[in-house]
């Protein structure tokens, strides 16, 4: 008795092989960072190397309050590659922020003089790939990579399940292992995860009583 038709089996095998190989690097990255995120303190991924730098932004540029020119000047002068996350004009200074997955810049430009103070926080490689996993400060294009990797992982699981169904000698044992893994995960959640037993109730509806 064939649980899976030959066409479905052939399609699943093709998808499983080639889509998995297409996304193997991304799947490895997200698999590894799933562990490193859970143990960031082991890898010193939350401690930054801090650098303080002073410089000069042209006073004429600051006087003109040309934000675009000031931002481009900062990028060129201090080799900033991150996305701008803040630009604020205060009474006596401009405050500008940039972030990328491995670095954070906090910059202050004094209005009267153009004197520039740069606070740079640099994180290690593990922190960088952890932020890539989260999609933090990585831009819209990288979010597409995350979405595609998620789709590939789901497809790898589904097509792998279909291929397993085509193995009658291992089907029964596979069902037992699948049930064990599913129940084990649910039991850990229910028994050990704080708050898993909290019931979420919808707020009671209130009706106005006409008098």
Description:
By secondary structure, this protein is of the alpha+beta class. It is about 55% helix and about 20% strand. It has a five-stranded antiparallel sheet with strand order 1-5-4-3-2, with no helix packed on it. Helix 1 runs antiparallel to helix 6. The longest helix is centred in the last third of the chain and has 27 residues.
Per-chain topology:
Elements: H1 6-22, H2 24-38, E1 49-56, H3 59-63, H4 67-78, E2 83-89, E3 93-100, E4 103-110, E5 115-122, H5 125-134, H6 139-165, H7 168-192
Antiparallel strand pairs: 1-5, 2-3, 3-4, 4-5
Helix pairs in contact: 1-6, 2-5
| Poorly predicted runs of 5 or more residues | 206-211
Strand order of the largest sheet: 1-5-4-3-2
Structural class: alpha+beta
Let me know the largest β-sheet.
5 strands, antiparallel
Structure summary, number of beta strands: 5
| Portion in beta strands | 15-25%
| Helical content class | 40-55%
Q: What Rg do the Cα atoms give?
A: 27 Å
Could you report the average pLDDT, rounded to the nearest whole number? 88
Q: Could you tell me how far the N terminus lies from the C terminus, measured between alpha carbons in angstroms? A: 71 Å
Shape: elongated
Q: What is the number of helical segments per DSSP (H or I, 4+ residues)? A: 7
- Secondary-structure element pattern, one letter each: HHEHHEEEEHHH
């Amino acid at each position: 008795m064939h649980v899976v038709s030959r066409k479905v089996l052939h399609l699943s095998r093709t998808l499983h092989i080639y889509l998995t190989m297409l996304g193997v690097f991304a799947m490895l990255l997200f698999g590894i960072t799933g562990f490193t995120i859970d143990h960031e303190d082991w890898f010193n991924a939350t401690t930054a190397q801090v650098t303080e730098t002073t410089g000069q932004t042209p006073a004429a540029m600051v006087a003109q309050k040309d934000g675009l020119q000031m931002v481009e000047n900062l990028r060129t002068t201090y080799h900033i590659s991150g996305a701008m996350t803040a630009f604020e004009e205060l009474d006596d200074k401009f405050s500008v922020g940039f972030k990328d997955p491995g670095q954070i810049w906090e910059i202050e430009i004094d209005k009267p003089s153009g004197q520039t103070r740069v606070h740079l926080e640099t994180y290690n490689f593990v922190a960088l790939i952890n932020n890539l996993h989260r999609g933090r400060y990585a831009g819209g294009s990288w979010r597409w990579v995350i979405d595609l990797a998620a789709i590939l992982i789901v497809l790898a699981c589904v097509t792998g399940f279909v291929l397993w169904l085509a193995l009658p000698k291992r089907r029964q044992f596979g069902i037992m292992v699948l049930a064990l893994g599913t129940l084990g995960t649910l039991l850990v959640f229910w028994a050990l995860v704080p708050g898993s037993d909290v019931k979420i109730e919808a707020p009671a509806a209130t009706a106005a009583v006409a008098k």
